[in-house]
Amino acid sequence: MAGNTFGQAFKLTTFGESHGIAIGGIIDGCPAGIKIDFAAVQRDLDRRKPGQSKIVTQRKESDTVEFLSGIFEGVTTGTPIGFQIVNENQKSKDYSHIADSYRPSHADKTYTDKYGTRDYRGGGRSSARETACRVVAGAVAKQMLSSIQFHAYTSSVGDLKMDKPYQELDFAEIENNAVRCADSAFAKACEEKILQVRKAGDTIGGVVSCVIQNVPPSLGEPVFDKLHADLGKAMLSINAVKGFEYGSGFAGSAMLGSEHNDLYNADGSTKTNYSGGIQGGISNGMDIYFSVAFKPVATIMQSQSTIDKDGNATEMQGKGRHDPCVVPRAVPIVEAMAALVLADHFLRNKTSKV
Amino acid sequence: MAGNTFGQAFKLTTFGESHGIAIGGIIDGCPAGIKIDFAAVQRDLDRRKPGQSKIVTQRKESDTVEFLSGIFEGVTTGTPIGFQIVNENQKSKDYSHIADSYRPSHADKTYTDKYGTRDYRGGGRSSARETACRVVAGAVAKQMLSSIQFHAYTSSVGDLKMDKPYQELDFAEIENNAVRCADSAFAKACEEKILQVRKAGDTIGGVVSCVIQNVPPSLGEPVFDKLHADLGKAMLSINAVKGFEYGSGFAGSAMLGSEHNDLYNADGSTKTNYSGGIQGGISNGMDIYFSVAFKPVATIMQSQSTIDKDGNATEMQGKGRHDPCVVPRAVPIVEAMAALVLADHFLRNKTSKV
Amino acid sequence: MAGNTFGQAFKLTTFGESHGIAIGGIIDGCPAGIKIDFAAVQRDLDRRKPGQSKIVTQRKESDTVEFLSGIFEGVTTGTPIGFQIVNENQKSKDYSHIADSYRPSHADKTYTDKYGTRDYRGGGRSSARETACRVVAGAVAKQMLSSIQFHAYTSSVGDLKMDKPYQELDFAEIENNAVRCADSAFAKACEEKILQVRKAGDTIGGVVSCVIQNVPPSLGEPVFDKLHADLGKAMLSINAVKGFEYGSGFAGSAMLGSEHNDLYNADGSTKTNYSGGIQGGISNGMDIYFSVAFKPVATIMQSQSTIDKDGNATEMQGKGRHDPCVVPRAVPIVEAMAALVLADHFLRNKTSKV
Amino acid sequence: MAGNTFGQAFKLTTFGESHGIAIGGIIDGCPAGIKIDFAAVQRDLDRRKPGQSKIVTQRKESDTVEFLSGIFEGVTTGTPIGFQIVNENQKSKDYSHIADSYRPSHADKTYTDKYGTRDYRGGGRSSARETACRVVAGAVAKQMLSSIQFHAYTSSVGDLKMDKPYQELDFAEIENNAVRCADSAFAKACEEKILQVRKAGDTIGGVVSCVIQNVPPSLGEPVFDKLHADLGKAMLSINAVKGFEYGSGFAGSAMLGSEHNDLYNADGSTKTNYSGGIQGGISNGMDIYFSVAFKPVATIMQSQSTIDKDGNATEMQGKGRHDPCVVPRAVPIVEAMAALVLADHFLRNKTSKV
């Protein structure tokens, strides 16, 4: 039982390898009657694509999405939305250096062990290229949830951490810098850090945070499909993610109940929001906020020792153009996955009362 | 579309409110041929039950599980395993103080908003009492996965944090202290901290860590149902959880790729294990380890201001016997959910090759 | 991956063997706010239970349902509804004659081959006793769909076939006779037939038809989960069913398009209803009607040759009290499964438009 | 919650409208290691395509499938298999006659009522063109199940019914005649009947039967996902199907238990096979056989009265090239759906024992 579908009511199934003919997906369950802004979908894709700034991989891919069904005269019809992104340059590269050897901290060996085979070209199915499909579907989900705002941004790069509470940030700043920080001074520091790491042929990790505003109450399905549990799964399913926390997060585990409890205002809002907009797994109308930890990219421009499929020691060095830090391009992916989770729970909640 | 089922191949569906007639569940998909050690199941339940030590709630509940089907002559038959735990003392208490008011940082208000009603007795469905059912199912899952070892333990209470790497811990120590630490000195410090917090009528958060050993390779289903994504969802679905990290976790986001990459030994094992036993969402045979952050229990023995269902301000104080810190009793729950995830992926993996 | 759950939005999972401690189930997804008429649920169960007339099995079982959760002060809360029916007389019978031998046209051998074991007492999980749980859940579904009428009735017993179109039947007659025909003269003929067959120690098949009135339009989800496809699956999942047809059915395959097409009235209703109330898999507001073929009960009171688990020839004769014809007791089961399908699609349809 | 996915372990999700850019699908869960015979896939598609003989629609569509992912160097990799069939001639036709009016016994009105809109070009999503995707996936499923034989064939056209038991048929004959009968004399009669009906501008229904040989025992998951219940749902989800029966079917309901019971041979096979190869929902290794009733095609070349979207009476006449009888082209679709069901249950059964 494979796992290429996300969601139950707003369902995304993706297919495709990084160097196959195309990647794509099917969105099933998108309600009828949504006017699609195709340019907005492509805009989100462009935020994820390679080559957009000097701190990301310099590969050139246009990543143009084609919708194949489910939209008629610009409006969704309630039928499945098929889409694809044709892979350019998908052939003739030399992958012999990874065909028989396993790149450290990549999925080469686990795929081979699990399936007995793998498409070794550029990571195949395990490549983060697959996330482009998530961005497409997330963009559609956002259009369904047009009254909700999703703001993801880089909140740390390596040991540089932004300390400000999100309320003091300027989300309008996010797209003004290559790192996608909501603070221009911090962005500058991060950018320098990334360039320095790249120069050393190395890579570095980081954290993406996300704030979701104007969330309607009542989204989330206890007991297993709590809203934050599905957000956590969504984020952890993104390549290179090592951790997720929401609301008070890990820091909340060091607090006292008397500090941590969110007392009510008369209108039902809360004075503090350590709960992160979710209580008992159900949204309460306050801002949802969470953070996602990304490890450093595994492909480095330094020689590393590894083994081949027969267990023989060998040396390997990253080739091609890779990201020195994944977080700037991960920002739209985090946003997309958050939108998919909320879209799914928005639809699921429609059945909670008669 | 409600969310009371966990898993796809090894599926647990639970029912029950804290003060209804019974709680229980159905395990569907447990393979035939597993000899059930009923005493071991009850032992895990007893580790979760109230009243077992002076640092947990002093409520007395025997929490005896009855299996109703799916096991014949002590062996699973491949048919659904129904079970229940009858609620003792389920009647006649006075819940008038929470019938119309919303306890801060509880699910009272979100349930009422979502469903238009709620069973207000003791938290009803949102009570952590539901997790007893998870412990039952997890105990069955462990028996299916008899060669795998699950070791959960308390790794922090409030700002007390255990710094040792797990390799230096003695898992045999876990059940020797009330806090369920794998280190007796640290356990003592935690116990004192919890008693001190309780004396103040307050509560405190903490962290449970878990190490899973002897995991077979190839568990996990890319791209959405990565093994760690399902572990994360499982943990985040436990009451009071605010964060999850595995392998290098949030700390890994501050590392360089050249530090973080796990280089291979000739036998396919890795020299380091920042990956936490999972690469590309698939287990690689190394130890899986992760941590789960719990917030402080919301019910405190201090007066708090809150609102009633009409938005009028009111005062409220916790009644009854509640846990000052949830982590000692959460340890078997974390273990149970980990076992459910691995059982599910163990079965799912059976279909990955012809 | 076992198959003990029916439905996606209104989900029933059942457990239990005929001679285990109890049978029962969990309804997950029933919306909050439905006032439950417990007597009506029990009434449907009583229509299914053994011993209610001289043409069904004379076993005495009270089949009393207990609800364990999900209903508070008589109203559904949106949380899972757990229920059970305790098995009376579940012990001490002599099943040695079927422990090691396979009853012809029963599931004894296929269960043993599939699972390597089976609970042989009275058929275990393969017993039609499991359908009592379906009747409970169906009764709850009917209460959610209170404006829809479900009328199932016996339309043939052996070669006795009722030729009248359903519009000429008196549904009020169904519960006035033991056969559950909607026509008293035909009922009398069927009853005589069944008594005659029983006297010969034999059994006989029959057909149950069902008419559903006042169905709202728009239920059904193309392309795979067409309303009639899910009705068909529901009916075929009932023990002993060999066929399903709806609307014009098999007879429709002999018609011309010019005869078969249902022309529209100005109000959108159709002049004829060969479509059976469903077009393109979606209800159109006209009556839904279908028929379900049941084979003769496999347990006969005659000696039959069979084999034991080692392939040795042996003789076997039905013991105990069994139904000579399944259809009178199948009528409420057909109704229940129809209600489950419509409840599920009623909820699923809530997400088809924004 | 839409319904465009079939199967749980071997899952097909389809997309596409008859006159959109493309139709296609994703097969998720196909195990790794299957060598794909692309020509065999295309061969099955060619059996379904229009224009292949004088008794089917004369539209010309090449229906060429392109595989986009999941197959590397001709072998499945365990990752999702994306595929598409580009629609030729998808533009510029005149559909004004159906844009605002509802064709009788089509899905025009139910789609419009359900979704508030529809792609009216050629039936859009409700067109049987979608079944081409099922044929592609079914062909892949057959290659996974290479030891099983699927033989579907036309067994009736209108009131012409083939009376021979399937054991007397020559399956090799099926592809030798345009009707796809397994008997040349009967094929000839059917062909004449269809031509005569077409000449009258009318259409006619028919029945497709299917025999599956060499089925391994133990496929099927009680109690809801019985093998025949899933076969029934699969068949009923095909456009124009009105009924399904397996084994003794509706005729079995007129039999006595003493006639109908399938007695065992010493090797565990049965002397008769009224059970149709399935007992208790689980395959027993005997031949599976079933029949599927198709209504006459709704589009006829005669003028019919109907209504427009405002309820005004109007006249409508079929345009273009349509099938006078659907069964010859339905044969490969029935086979494909049967293969999908068996593939799904083949994988699901892998988890029934430890």
Automatic annotation (TrEMBL), chains A, B, C, D:
InterPro entries: Chorismate_synth, Chorismate_synth_AroC_sf, Chorismate_synthase_CS. It catalyses: 5-O-(1-carboxyvinyl)-3-phosphoshikimate = chorismate + phosphate. Its EC number is 4.2.3.5. NADP(+) binds at residues 48, 54. One of its GO terms (molecular function) is FMN binding. CDD domains: Chorismate_synthase. Reduced FMN (FMNH(2)). FMN binds at residues 125-127, 239-240, 280, 295-299, 321. Keywords: Amino-acid biosynthesis, Aromatic amino acid biosynthesis, FAD, Flavoprotein, FMN, Lyase, NADP. It comes from the Bacteria. One of its GO terms (cellular component) is cytosol. Its cofactor is FMNH2. GO terms for biological process: amino acid biosynthetic process; aromatic amino acid family biosynthetic process; chorismate biosynthetic process. PROSITE patterns: CHORISMATE_SYNTHASE_1, CHORISMATE_SYNTHASE_2, CHORISMATE_SYNTHASE_3. Pathway: Metabolic intermediate biosynthesis; chorismate biosynthesis; chorismate from D-erythrose 4-phosphate and phosphoenolpyruvate: step 7/7. HAMAP family: Chorismate_synth. Homotetramer. Belongs to the chorismate synthase family. This reaction introduces a second double bond into the aromatic ring system. This is Chorismate synthase. It comes from Nonlabens agnitus.
